[in-house]
Amino acid sequence: MGHPSLTIARYTLLEALRTRLLWLTALALLTLLAGSAFVQQLAIAEGVRFQTAFLAATARPAAVFLIALYVISSMAREFHDKGVELILALDLSRASFVLGKLAGFAALAVFFAVASCLPVALFAPLGKALLWGVSLLCELWIIAALSLFCAVTFSQVVPASSFVLGFYLLARSISALQLIGGSALIDDGGRLHQAMLGALNALALALPHLDTFTRTAWLVNPGADWGQIAPILLQTLIYCGILAAATLFDMYRRNF
């Protein structure tokens, strides 16, 4: 018998693959493909370029939405059905349970990244599509770890989903907010503005810069190279480690 964490990860992945998640993912991708074909027909010139951009820009949030919603709903169901208490009643540590769940959801993220990358690779160069897919996988790993943390902390679908959505939107737009806040057009030199800008810069240090992840421009513009993946991998390693530690802390403070 393998390590308990590997067993938990295996059954977590099997549970996901035996549900209607596969059909839902296929339906979502087919819908996006149809939408991209419609966009290509509307484009006056460079139809394939517009089709690729549309497909990449919609496949990314769709994959993020699906994995976040599945992780949160799956964990909420286990908490409500007392499945977590039953598992922890066995000779299994809470750390093994959390790490196993995290590994299972990370494997599920690989499925979503590959499924999203395949249609993109039909219209973009293979090297650029692979770069885009690896970056998407890193983004999904962060979202999966965050969703697991929120599911353990809140134990409810709505507050956990709201937190993940707010975190994702803020992490995606934090650089733009910094640019707007530092613009000379709105900088009046007042203390309130400086305090708000300082708070925004501090928040930017605490958030992953997801706006640098999975860029659509990599697929349709020249200049994309694998050197851009190094900071993405570093951010993924840091934030997944922090979120895993926070999830473990919350698991050990709960009373089952």
Descriptors for this entry?
mainly alpha, 256 residues, 10 helices
Architecture overview:
The chain is an all-alpha fold and 256 residues long. The chain has one domain. The protein has ten helices and no strands.
The multimeric state of the shown protein is single chain
Q: Helical proportion?
A: over 70%
Q: How many separate domains make up the residues?
A: 1
Low-confidence parts: none
Average pLDDT number: 87
Rg, alpha carbons? 20 Å
String of helices and strands: HHHHHHHHHH
Sheet with the most strands? Answer: none
In total, the number of strands is 0
Measure the end-to-end span: 26 Å
Individual helix count? 10
The share of residues in extended strands comes to under 5%
Outline the secondary-structure elements.
Blueprint: H1 4-17, H2 21-42, H3 47-80, H4 83-88, H5 94-121, H6 126-154, H7 157-181, H8 191-206, H9 217-220, H10 229-253
Helix pairs in contact: 1-5, 2-3, 2-5, 3-5, 3-6, 3-7, 5-6, 5-10, 6-7, 6-10, 7-8
Provide a concise account of the structure shown.
This protein has ten helices and no strands.
